[in-house]
């Protein structure tokens, strides 16, 4: 047996006992001298020692790219479904994960192009006690995101639809986020009615304020202002702080200014104050209104506007009155005895005020809920307010 083969055997033995640095030194020496002598398996073993010593816990970005690039030249992508592992795929995923953490979406696209998604596994896997996305879903998530962020909207739509049509199972509502990017891409392309069909699917699952805002903006562009109101309402009444969703009040201004200027001005004033308190610029259209900040009270505007939208939300429902019959302080829920003697469930999170006590007179609206303990639909009290 010649010295070259002995060295490769030694390198393999080091690798099998976890001495990857020693193995790598030998593999590098041998590959530099006789690359043509390496078998498929020896190249794969060499690649894994590079991954474990220089890629898995890298410290230098340039070295990461250089080492992964070398691995893509050394070995080919294997079918993850058959092999159960692939150093080619694992290395590129390391790069993609790093670039995503840096929000460097432009650089992600060439690396995504080095992968064949059909060779990636589709089965979610368990790690650290939780179920994780399959490699194929993760690939499509990254591709969809990268194309959207790089304003390659047609490609974002194409890759997202491919994922929706090919994947049988999604983790972490992955299918919903793909539909969301399709909707946003269609909106950017001016295909507004198509975008709405995807948004409607999205909000069946997700109820994020900005999704409702986006739908409202589309109806505004379609000159259907009255429909915009139905989507602005849940966005404004959501729990996120106003400073986070300040822009929605500018959308409200645009919706109202053609039909109800006093209402439009109130929303513009709140938008102006919220923007003034942050580092974000004020829209030129609002800046031109020349508001005197010293004459405006943000808390009063917030309270008044919220009350307006609560009334809009329940415009087809009469406010009810009743008395708190019971309240569990530990579990934060109780029951209200309404004027018609119905007993209605409420949660402390729906109570406007600090203290809840038995015998307290309250006003409230109702909406549909689901009683998990009885496995049936029910009614709950919302926007509960104590009365003097």
What this model shows, in words?
The protein is of the alpha+beta class and 388 residues long. The mean pLDDT is 93. The protein has helices at 3-16, 20-33, 40-55, 61-74, 80-83, 87-101, 105-112, 135-149, 153-166, 174-188, 192-202, 209-221, 225-236, 247-256, 261-276, 284-287, 298-313, and strands at residues 125-127, 130-132, 320-328, 333-338, 343-347, 351-352, 361-371, 376-386. The chain has a five-stranded mixed barrel. It has a two-stranded antiparallel sheet with strand order 1-2. The longest helix has 16 residues, at 40-55. The N and C termini lie far apart (97 Å). Among the domains are: 207-313; 320-386, Nucleic acid-binding proteins (OB fold (Dihydrolipoamide Acetyltransferase, E2P), Beta Barrel). Helix 10 (174-188) runs antiparallel to helix 11, helix 13 (225-236) runs antiparallel to helix 14 and helix 14 (247-256) packs antiparallel against helix 15 (261-276). It is elongated and about 95 Å long. Helices cover 54% and strands 13% of the residues.
